[in-house]
Amino acid sequence: MTTAIDSAALYRLQTWLSPSFPIGAYTFSHGLEYAVEARWVSDVGSAQSWLESLLLHGTGQADLVLVAAGWRATTDESLHRALSVGVAMTASRELRLETTAQGDAFLHAVGNAWPCDALTSLRAFDGDKPYPVVVGAVAAAHGVPLDATLHAYAHAFLSNLVSALLRAIPLGQSDGQRLVADLEPVVDEAVQRATDTALQNVSASTPLSDIASMRHEKQYSRLFRS
What is the pTM of this model? Predict the structure, then answer.
C-alpha cells in the first residue's frame, strides 16, 4: 500500500537521495570495480544479474531492512540497536567505510540544513553510524512515509552502482538507463520484501560480492574507495 507524500516531504527526500547531495556516494563502487576487473561483470546482462542479486538477496536488501528499522525506531534503544546491527552487517573493511562515511556525511549535511530531533539521538550513539539507518531515522523525523523512503533509497542505491559501472566497464549511457528501467520491478519487489522483514531477520547472501569487496582492498589500480 502506497502512502501519500506531501510536497515538503517529497522535496526533502529528492534532495537527500540526489546524486548531488554531499555524501560522496560517487566515490564508492561497492566492490564492483574488482568484479569488473575479474570479468565477473562484463556487460549489460551480467551487470543486471549482479544488481538484481544485491537488491533481492544481498547488501541492497539488507540496507532496505535497515532503512525501515531506522524509520520505525521509536526509542533511543531501538535506534541504537539498528545502528549496531547495520555496522555488524558489513562484510569487509571497505563496505564498512562505505556505509559509515556516507552515514556521517549525511548526518552532517542534514544537520546543517534540516535540523531535527532525531539528530540528537543519532549523535549520541557512541559508534559508527551506517548510512541506511541514518536515512530512515531522519526521514521518519521529517514525516516522510516509509514506502517512499524505501523506494527512493533503492533507486539511489541502484543508480549509484549503475554510475560506477558506466565508468568501470564502461557501459554506454543508453545501456545504463536500460538497466535502471529493466530493474524497476526488482526494486518494487525488494522494497516489499524489506517492508515485511523484521530487523532480527535481516540477512545478506551474495558471497561473490563480499569477496569482490575484500579483494578490492588490494587491487593495484583503483578508481573507487570500495
Answer: 0.96
